[in-house]
Specification:
This protein has 202 residues and is an alpha/beta fold. Helices cover 37% and strands 14% of the residues. It is built from 8 helices and 5 strands. Strands 3-4-5 form a 3-stranded parallel sheet, with no helix packed on it. The protein has a two-stranded parallel ribbon with strand order 1-2. Helix 5 crosses helix 7. The C terminus is likely disordered.
Length: 202
């Protein structure tokens, strides 16, 4: 996707280096794009560092500037950026737990959104006040944009209660790390995060 975008867009859009995060096997050099390899399906430190770099770059975007985001399946694991109360190891353990119990990709992504600073529209919020455009390659039946890579640029209608329900339905809520299960219990009746799609384009 990154290579195609680089070839098809005007040079003026590439005054600064872009960032592409992919699995280690597919990492390859692309002009004007820093390609970073990371782990999939379980996240790793390389992915965390890549996510922080993406967040820093997007946060620096200014009004009337264009932020172009390319999203495809696998992004959930490739750019892990846990909320401050959660460590990467706790997030990895939680993902492993969900995979082991047979949770669906939609169930896993619902949980991931509530453990992440970037998923569930978090990446798009960092881009404000810039103009953000997203190109999405779907690997999800029905093409639910909020489910692909856990929707980093798509407003999230789910709640903490929805995420907790995934664990309780699988009978594994008691295995969730104590720190964030306590946080989620306090937040479970909260409304969905802001779903207003201002200056988002797909």
């Amino acid at each position: 996707m990154a290579k195609a975008a680089r070839k098809s867009s005007l040079p003026i859009y590439w005054r600064n280096f872009g960032i592409a995060v992919t699995n280690y096997e597919n990492a390859t050099a692309i002009d004007n794009i820093e390609v970073i390899g990371a782990s999939h399906p379980l996240p790793d430190e390389a992915g965390l560092n890549a996510a922080k770099k993406c967040a820093e770059r997007i946060s620096s975007a200014q009004k009337d500037e264009l932020v172009l985001v390319l999203v495809s399946g696998g992004g959930s694991a490739l750019i892990p950026y846990p909320v401050d109360a959660i460590s990467l190891q706790e997030k990895i353990a939680t993902t492993d737990l969900l995979l082991a119990c047979g949770a669906t990709i939609n169930e896993i992504n619902c949980v991931r959104k509530h453990l992440s600073q970037l998923k569930g529209g978090g990446l798009a919020r960092l881009a404000v006040p810039a103009d953000l455009h997203t190109f999405i390659l779907s690997d999800v039946l029905g093409d639910d944009l909020s489910a692909i890579a856990s929707g980093p640029t798509v407003p999230d209608p789910s709640t903490y209660a929805d995420a907790i329900a995934v664990f309780t339905a699988k009978g594994i809520w008691d295995k969730v790390p104590l720190l964030f299960s306590s946080i989620w219990n306090r937040a479970r009746w909260a409304k969905p995060r802001n779903t207003e799609a201002r200056r988002y384009h797909f």
